[in-house]
Amino acid sequence: MEPLATNAALVIIDMQKGMADPALGRRNNPDAELRIQQLLNAWRHAQRPVIHVRHISRSPGSVFWPGQPGCEFQGALQPLAHEHVVEKNVPDAFSATGLERWLHMRSIRQLVIVGVITNNSVEATVRSGGNLGFDVIVAADACFTFDQTDLSGRLWPAEDVHALSLSNLAMDYARVFQTSEILANH
């Protein structure tokens, strides 16, 4: 991996309190939050741009409905006053949020994406970012997902769902690395 651009942005997706809801089921990468914190600390120390993405649900029963505690950012990953916050209503952080324009206005072309859910909001955002021409990097161990049942009723472990999602992204949309590799080239 070559060194990152000096203005590479760290994009933290949906690290909200609601992601700890037991109803979501069993997850992989139990240390993902620690990896995200390591990256966030490195970005802040280097004074690189940080973008916090938050899902705001349109479904009143959702833990991400506005005003619910689940909608709030996790304590250790709270945005600082000068860090950009993007609120989205669909999985893709580029869809109807102004994120693309915000990045272009600052000549940011490289994104390091972390967060949840690997095969949902992370994947949707990475695909859009790659399609829009950004140089997208995903920190594999700074993302996680949950066990998922497919349409035939088969239960897939979170580890498999995560691995397949990252493999799909690595084909055409992004480069996938471990947090340690990204930090070594920071």
Automatic annotation (TrEMBL):
Matching Pfam families: Isochorismatase (PF00857)
Signal peptide coordinates: none
Protein's name in the database: Cysteine hydrolase family protein
Species whose genome carries this gene: Pseudomonas khavaziana
Keyword Ribonucleoprotein: no
Keyword DNA repair: no
Enzyme Commission no: 3.-.-.-
CDD domains: nicotinamidase_related
Domain Isochorismatase-like: 8-149
